[in-house]
Amino acid sequence: MDQSRREFLEELLTTPSPSGFETSGQRVWVEYVREFADDVETDAYGNAVAVHEGTGEGPEIALTGHADEIGFIVRDVLEDGFLRIAPVGGSDRTVSKGQHVTVHADKPVQGVIGQTAIHLRDKTEDEYEDIEAQFVDVGAESEDEARELVEIGDAVTFSTTIEELAGSRLAARGMDNRVGTWCAAEGLRRAVAADVDATVYAVSTVQEEVGLKGAQMVGYDLDPDAFVAVDVTHATDNPDVDRERRGPVELGEGPVVTRGSANHPQLVDLARDAAADADLDVQLQAAGSRTGTDADAFFTSRSGIPSLNVSIPNRYMHTPVEVVDTDDLVEVADLLAAVADEAGEYEDFDVEI
Q1: Identified catalytic residue from 22, 186, 208, 331
Q2: Mean of the pLDDT values across residues 306-333?
Q3: Does residue 208 carry a catalytic annotation?
Q4: Strand partners of residue 147
Q5: Is pTM, for the whole model, over 0.90?
Q6: Which are the contacts of 228, defined by CB distance < 8 A and separation ≥ 6?
Q7: What are phi and psi of 13, to 5 degrees?
Q8: Among the four residues 129, 229, 272, 309, which has the most C-beta atoms within 10 Å?
């Protein structure tokens, strides 16, 4: 990954973007894609769409990722100045205590999610409290002092930084799914450079973590011939994951193409053929009932829009220390561009009955 693309990735990862509060992150994404897109538009809730118009001889393909990350929200300010919180999306109560957080008020406020010292806890009753029972300490000594700093409804995120691990591995919060929006943008940039015949959209959706809401809006409004939803998927190559039950997915082994459920068989074939022609290795994953991604909203939009999951292996999802391999990101972007380039070889994406 060259320096310019790395800087874009790091800016995405360091810009807080919890569900419902994606504006700052979307601004970063929009400013980047404007450099090469023919047009960029946003809607009332902040979904962003960039387009390469193509020649008019090919289909319309949308490459998508979701901009939002999990987090918390301030739901109460207590008399002693502590804050009660609620989850935004699938926040994990087992990793939240003892973490640095930022409350995104008018001015960012630093805090910690309190954890009683091990010396003072009753070990016979050690358990993970629900997030609603946890609290944030911003250092305020009273309710009035706290209310001068924050308001009910302010978003809260972990303050984790980006850390480089060995080789091409990278750790940060919010890999899910700013890496997907990075790939969508880079897939579009590559398609523009190749001057593909297809009309190619890059899309950064909002509020996936709270129910695929942005994808529902975009799926209705955009109506392309096909959606390719890029999201993270669980890597199963660390010791605590039972890969025999989940199926093998490894960091550094390339894009993951999903079969089953929302994944249209013609698009699966297109992705595998495009990967082979571009000399890219792909991993396969099964989805028996649902994908848990924006594809679940896209493929049921209107009268049904053919959709596909292309995924990025990710360790420790929904924690402050998610780990990906940046080589996988580059190959996913390459695959998206190859799919856009070869999509015109398919007359349509209908199944044969």
Answers
A1: 208
A2: 98
A3: yes
A4: none
A5: yes
A6: 61, 62, 63, 64, 267, 271, 307, 308, 309, 310, 336, 339
A7: -70, -25
A8: 229
Whether residues 184 and 54 fall in one domain: yes
* Structural tokens at position 85: 């919180």
Tell me whether strands 307-314 and 256-259 are parallel, antiparallel or unpaired. antiparallel
Residue 130 lies in a domain: yes
96 CB-near residues (< 8 Å, 6+ apart): 72, 113, 131, 134
Residue labelled with tokens 């991604």: 293
- Report the side by side order of strands in the sheet with 60-66: 39-42, 48-52, 199-205, 60-66, 226-234, 307-314, 256-259, 283-286
Cα distance from N-terminal residue to C-terminal residue, the chain: 43
CA-to-CA distance for 263 and 90, rounded, in angstroms?
24
Categorize the per-residue pLDDT at 125 as very low, low, confident or very high, splitting at 50, 70 and 90: low
Task: Give a yes or no: residue 165 inside a domain.
Answer: no
- pLDDT for residue 346: 81
CA distance 230 to 346: 21
Are 181 and 328 in a shared domain? Answer: yes
- Say if residue 189 is in the same domain as residue 327: yes
Say yes or no: 151 and 252 in one domain: no
Lowest mean pLDDT among 31-40, 112-121, 326-335: 112-121
pLDDT in tens, 62-83: 999 999 999 999 999 999 999 9
Q: Which residue type sits at 214? A: G
